[in-house]
Amino acid sequence: MIVEAVEKQLDVFIVDLKRKQVKGSYNVAVRTAEFARQVISHSKWSNAKQLLDILREVGSRLVHASPLEFAIGNVVRRIMFFVREEYTALVKKEQNDQAPSLTSMIMVDDEELDFMEPIRELKAAVIEAINEMLDEIKELYRNIASQAIEHIHADEVIMTFGTSRTVLEFLKAAARKRKFQVVVTESAPGFEGHQAALALSAAGIDTTVIPDAAIFAMMARVNKVIIGTHAVVANGGLIAPAGTDMLSIAAQHHAVPLLVCTGLYKLCPLYPQDQDTFNDFTSPAKIIKFEEADDLLDSVQVQNPAFDYIPPERVGLFLTNLGGHNPSYIYRLLAGFYNPEDTLEDSN
Question: SS3 sequence, 237-279?
């Protein structure tokens, strides 16, 4: 049962998500994991099944508050996986202590567990697993950046899109031992590319900003495209900032490898159907000012989508905090990260 103090904190978290006061995959993931740790510590539960039900309720409410912040569902599912994993390990350990034999080591079938047996050590084990996950998330920038020398070589021309802290740290790490050029697309209408270019030039990297319309023309001179992403979906595709689809098409046409720097907390067990499956429309004011469109409101629709879906066949390699992976390997990672029974989106 969720106690009153936790319920109040959950309401505050939901309001922060709806008001976009907590945004960005990294910030959302850390806040979700820390809140889940509080839920486990302070809620009233006596066995793993009750804890799973509490986490499922909390996760569903958070996902409903901000459906396109995929890191919320990813973190909650991962913690539910920890609960199942730790419970199974403790049950096996308990049985082995009671009857240490080869037969007892295979007595427990994970699929037959009902998660109803009270185990005192479960809370501490799950909280320790959450702390390790938080450390992994907070260290991912350094872990991904440490692979930069393997993928960026001297005198190469690298193209990137928008701004991503993971990509910036990756390029800065490579620049300590390699000299190369970076072409940054300005990423209209938000022009986040200007921020990235400023950060890269401050780090001493030869940086050029180009308009989005010049992507196809410049791609012939590029050796690699390195981008970040909002989420990695189950088929190995991406949910990335709007405009990335155009970039990936140009890269595929010119046979330029597309590398994606991402933490595995962005790995999402959901399947997109098309560009509209996981998308949102932001304010059109960035494209055209309202006072300029006053005479056009009855005859023109201005759409400003937040994301693009990039299919897996356009992705060359995922550079994660646990090494490089091909898009075809994503389904194996999913099997080791989440349990298929732990659904959140359809629980409301």
Answer: CEEEECCHHHHHHHHHHCCCCEEEECCHHHECCCCCCCCCCCC
